[in-house]
Amino acid sequence: MVEQNNNECCEYANKYIFEIRHLADMIECKDNAAFVSSLREDFGKLGLFSSAANFLRLMYEIRASSEDEETLRNHISVMAMETLLTLSWYIVSDYNDIIRSQIELFKTKNKRYGNAFSECFSKDGYPYAFGHLQEKINRICSLLTLNEDAKEEPILDSYKDLLGYCILTLIEINTSVPLKRDDY
């Protein structure tokens, strides 16, 4: 039983690593250069507020999207890419460093808690994932209204959590049963 749980954790970790590295490939893709440049320009003008506004819009589109899982996957991928880029610009670090950090964080949490997200998703479906995404977006928006001294560390943690939940949701989209309108 323990060996089976270890194998499941390793398999899930491999899926996590695949998804987050896929984001890096998407960021580097020439087809996305204009998108990345636009995000960078907005970040330069508005800082974290630009991503918060985009997250709110994307979450609305995620909840309002049709039964098309490809559309859902695209919206969550865009949210994950923007989260990763925003983190890298805010802390002035290469996004590959953030990817390595996120993988280590995932491995630590997965070792502690197992595949809790996957298990709950299999029971509750998309509303479970959407709730986590919305919670992190709401937290980011709330933290942006606090004073500078109070927000720096928690807001970065919230961005990292949002990125993690985006990745976990993408894993579940890629391995779950088809989306039904009743799921959200």
Core attributes:
84% helix; 184 residues; disordered C terminus; 8 helices; 0% strand; globular; mainly alpha
Q: Beta-sheet strand percentage?
A: under 5%
Tell me, what's the shape?
Answer: globular
User: Total helix count?
Assistant: 8
* Fraction of helical residues: over 70%
* Order of secondary-structure elements: HHHHHHHH
Give the low-pLDDT segments.
179-184
Class from secondary-structure proportions: mainly alpha
Radius of gyration: 16 Å
Q: Indicate the mean pLDDT.
A: 85
Number of strands: 0
Largest sheet properties: none
End-to-end distance: 34 Å
Compact summary:
With 184 residues, the protein is an all-alpha fold. Helices cover 84% and strands 0% of the residues.
Structural write-up:
- The chain is mainly alpha-helical.
- Helix content is 84%, strand content 0%.
- The chain has eight helices and no strands.
- Helix 3 (48-64) runs antiparallel to helix 4 (69-90).
- The longest helix has 28 residues, at 148-175.
- The radius of gyration is 16 Å and the shape is globular.
Give the helix/strand layout:
Layout: H1 2-28, H2 33-46, H3 48-64, H4 69-90, H5 95-113, H6 116-124, H7 126-143, H8 148-175
